[in-house]
Amino acid sequence: MTIQEIRIGERRIGALIGKGGATKRKIEEKTGSTIKIDSEEGDVLIEGEDAFGVLRAADVVTAIARGFSPERAFVLFEDEDMAIEIIDLSEIDPSLKQQERLKGRIIGKAGKGRQQIENMTKVEISVQGKTVTLIGMPEKLRTARAAIEMLINGAQHETVFSFLEKKRREEREDMLGYYY
């Protein structure tokens, strides 16, 4: 029996449970795990015989807790190599004012910065609380994380987008190289 425990904010409990328990039920069905939610404390207990299933359920619960809609979090079910990564902005700067500024740089005007990074890397991004959470394939995660770290370190958005375009070109060239 594998067990994972996660604490989530009370504002995200409803999203985790879903209408009539649908989200919780779908996670349990997809992973072969059992999920118990303490709505008072925000404690989530995930149990199951299949260790990978329990860990995948924990990833999905974490994604929902970090601000992803259940539908966006469910991309973790699409491929077993799909992963989740969390950047804790409080580790970069403990000042709440500075964290808000960093989140604003990542999101960009009207959300266009985040959207552009998502489109160019094929990585889902959620910016909530003190964290930036990424969901994607490992290589894509590395690229998206590098772009976000560039923004955190003060790089201009155009510089970051040029970096992402270069990475995308390199990826296409690598793919074409496999065919010749």
What does this structure look like?
With 180 residues, this protein is α+β, with helices and mostly antiparallel strands. The protein is 56% helix and 19% strand. It is built from nine helices and six strands. It has helices at residues 10-17, 22-31, 51-65, 70-73, 89-92, 96-107, 112-121, 138-152, 157-179; strands at 2-7, 34-38, 43-48, 83-88, 124-128, 131-136. The strands form two sheets. It has a three-stranded antiparallel β-sheet, covered by helices on one side. The chain has a three-stranded antiparallel β-sheet with strand order 4-6-5. The model has no long low-confidence stretch (mean pLDDT 93).
Total of DSSP H or I helical runs spanning 4+ residues: 9
Mind describing the biggest β-sheet?
Answer: 3 strands, antiparallel
Tell me the helix content: 55-70%
How would you spell out the order of helices and strands? Answer: EHHEEHHEHHHEEHH
- Write down the overall geometry: globular
Mean pLDDT: 93
Second CATH tier, the architecture of the largest domain: 2-Layer Sandwich
Number of domains: 2
Tell me the CATH topology of the largest domain.
Ribosomal Protein S8, Chain: A, domain 1
Q: What's the end-to-end separation, in Å?
A: 48 Å
Number of strands: 6
Structural class: alpha+beta
Radius of gyration: 18 Å
CATH homologous superfamily label of the largest domain: K Homology domain, type 1
Task: Flag low-confidence runs.
Answer: none
Quick one: CATH class of the largest domain? Answer: Alpha Beta
Strand order of the largest sheet: 1-3-2
The percentage of residues in β strands lies in 15-25%
